[in-house]
Amino acid sequence: MPQTTITPHDQSRYVTRELTTDYDSVLNKASTAQRSWAKVPIEKRIEIANRFVEEFEKLSEQIIPELTLQMGRPVSQNAGEIRGTLDRSKFMISIASSSLSDVELKDSDKPGFRRFIRREPLGVVFVISPWNYPYLTMINSVLPALIAGNAVILKPSPQTPLTAERLASAFYTAGLPPETLQVVHLTPQGVEAVTKHPKVDFVSFTGSVQNGRVVSRAAAASDNFPGVALELGGKDPAYVMGNADFDYTVAELVDGAFFNSGQSCCAVERIYVHESLFDKFVRAYVELVKKYGLGNPTEKDTNLGPVVSLASAEKIRKQVSDAIGAGAKALIPEQLFPCAREGTTYVAPQVLIDVTHSMDVMKEETFGPVVGIMKVSSDEEAIKLMNDSPYGLTASIWTSSQDDFLELVDKVEAGTVYQNRCDYLDPALSWTGVKWSGRGISLSKFGYDQLTRVKSVHIKYKTS
After folding, report:
1. 18: left (phi over 0), alpha (psi -120 to 50) or beta
2. Gap between the Cα atoms of 299 and 305, Å rounded
3. What's the rounded Cα separation, in Å, for the pair 298 and 312?
4. Do the beta carbons of residue 429 and residue 443 sit within 8 Å?
5. Catalytic site residue 422?
6. pLDDT by residue (tens digit) across 64-120?
7. I want to staple 140 with a disulfide (CB 3.0 to 4.6 A). Which of 16, 205, 252, 442 is the partner?
8. Residue 102 CA, distance from chain mean position
9. Angle between the 188-196 and 209-221 helix axes, to the nearest 10 degrees?
10. pLDDT tens-digit readout, 203-231
11. Dist. CA 384–CA 399, nearest whole Å
């Protein structure tokens, strides 16, 4: 049965793709190709990766409108994903040789021996990517996996099938053997079957906690027992201290909550503001949110587009409605955004106060243009509330004092903690989560560790 992508803003059919069903053929080709690819010198693999960067950049004018039609982000904002993909690629290429080289041990204490640790490719890596930032999430695993000598099976979201195809075409043009990177379109049952396949050695999944559990269980049931990396959801908090740079903090936290309609795993969904700034902060925050233009994402002046699906829009509206029913106060009049109507994917941005942690809007991932703001009286209260979540992807603390930040950073339960920044990945830093936000690492030199296995080599020299 074909798989059809529905354009979020007008519900039209955009593209249709045939589903992959012959898993054995795909995996056998990948396994054979990987053995040959692993023998290619790393210098040659890096050369192909550098050419990929050039070829991918050439596709940007084609990619930008396609992204909007597939997942609904305003066309004016898509160039940022292209830049981010290029930046991450260039960085991971720049550290590849040093990250994958042998680790020599000093043998002064063991004369007559040589010892070193070598990194080898895992084999076939199955990458399952999401729709919300498809190129950024794909490149985190695909490029370092290939440079390390693995073959990759790439499964895009049904919402963004063209993204994997464009990425693969850039690699092929750059000289990558086609069967070393294969794009597959799968049902959930197909994902489970490929995960369990005996020729899959590692699975890199980005998506929801629910689907992450399914992938994890399937991997555990495989005879090959593949490794699994899970990049899952977030309910990311921000704490605004009394000494924060006020105007800068307001603007950054509005953008961190509403960019891409809040459809980011590391979007800011909860804000805790010190009581000395609370009223002033809320007023300024609301005024800035009211300036958003919600509308057709194909138009250049739009800076807030639809959410990805009707089901997502319904879930977001229900979370807001339930919060209001439980005593929260909505500060953004929906009539300011006329296209935000029931039965559409257009959801008005919303700022809620008088919220509590008994409400889903402060506990469960929203993945939409909604943020709750709470008043706190101390650092201790803020940290307690920030950590009162099953998620732990990123968190941010907003203060003009680095000492104040460093005093709190170790108390925050998150994979990344920012001072005066949010909703951002630095490729030189490892991307990881705690609690429900995932397992494993991508990016940075540690990202290569996840995509290789170590072999210890122990040499004893012949003695006279």
Report:
1. beta
2. 10
3. 20
4. yes
5. no
6. 999 999 999 999 999 999 999 999 999 999 999 999 999 998 866 677 888 999 999
7. 442
8. 30
9. 40
10. 999 999 999 999 999 999 999 999 999 99
11. 18
Please tell me the distance from the alpha carbon of residue 254 to that of residue 246, in angstroms, as a whole number: 12
pLDDT of the residue at 111: 79
Q: What CA–CA distance (Å, rounded) separates 296 from 29?
A: 43
DSSP state of 362: G
Question: How far is residue 241's CA from residue 228's CA, in Å, rounded to a whole number?
Answer: 38
> How many Å apart are CA 127 and CA 178, to the nearest integer?
16
Q: Is 138 exposed, middle or buried (0-12, 13-18, 19+ CB in 10 A)?
A: buried
Whole-number pLDDT of residue 112: 84
d(CA 37, CA 48): 12
Partnered with residue 388 across adjacent β-strands are: none
What are the beta bridge partners of residue 395? Answer: 417
Mean pLDDT of the chain: 96
Q: Which of 252, 265, 269, 365 is catalytic?
A: 265
The angle, 0 to 180 degrees and rounded to 10, between the axes of the packed helices 134-147 and 161-174 is 40
Q: Are strands 3-6 and 13-17 parallel, antiparallel or unpaired?
A: antiparallel
Do 232 and 437 touch, CB atoms closer than 8 A?
Answer: yes
Mean pLDDT of 338-344: 96
Q: Which of 157, 159, 158, 179 is nearest to 168 (CA)?
A: 179
The confidence score (pLDDT) of residue 108 equals: 63
Dihedrals φ, ψ of 126, to 5°?
Answer: -100, 115
Whole-number Å distance between alpha carbons of 27 and 190 = 13
Active site residue: 66, 192, 231, 365, which one?
231
265 is catalytic: yes
Mean pLDDT of 400-427: 97
- Give first-to-last CA distance, the chain, whole Å: 71
Which of 427, 329, 372 lies closest to 238 in space, CA to CA?
372
Q: What is the rounded CA–CA span in Å between residue 268 and residue 374?
A: 13
Region 414-430: mean pLDDT is 97
Model confidence over 231-273: pLDDT tens digits? 999 999 999 999 999 999 999 999 999 999 999 999 999 999 9
Question: What is the rounded distance in angstroms from the CA atom of residue 148 to the CA atom of residue 144?
Answer: 6
The closest alpha carbon to 15, from 27, 28, 4, 26, belongs to 4
* Interatomic CA distance for residues 134 and 159, integer angstroms: 10
